[in-house]
Write a structure and sequence with these properties.
Elements lengths: L4 H18 L7 H8 L3 H19 L8
Helix pairs in contact: 1-2, 2-3
InterPro entries: Homeodomain-like_sf (IPR009057)
Protein name: HTH araC/xylS-type domain-containing protein
Length: 67
């Protein structure tokens, strides 16, 4: 059974979010979270931004003021 790249990426993001939740009091930095999920700082930031962007766009719906 072959796991898709999207599924692997989702698993990495889920693992990162879990790590952040478990260590929120110590405010882990980008490098620490990236190392925890086995990615470089660059790749983790790119992957997280890719997954977070759709949520960011939908969270702004209805909050924009009409001109």
């Amino acid at each position: 059974m072959q796991v898709s790249m999207e599924s692997k990426d989702y698993q990495k993001i889920a693992k990162a979010i879990l790590f952040i939740r478990q260590h929120h009091l110590s405010q882990p930095d980008l490098i620490t979270v990236a190392q925890n999920i086995g990615l470089s700082e660059y790749h983790f930031q790119r992957l997280f931004t890719q997954w977070a962007a759709p949520f960011e766009e939908t969270s702004n719906i209805g909050t924009e003021q009409e001109a």
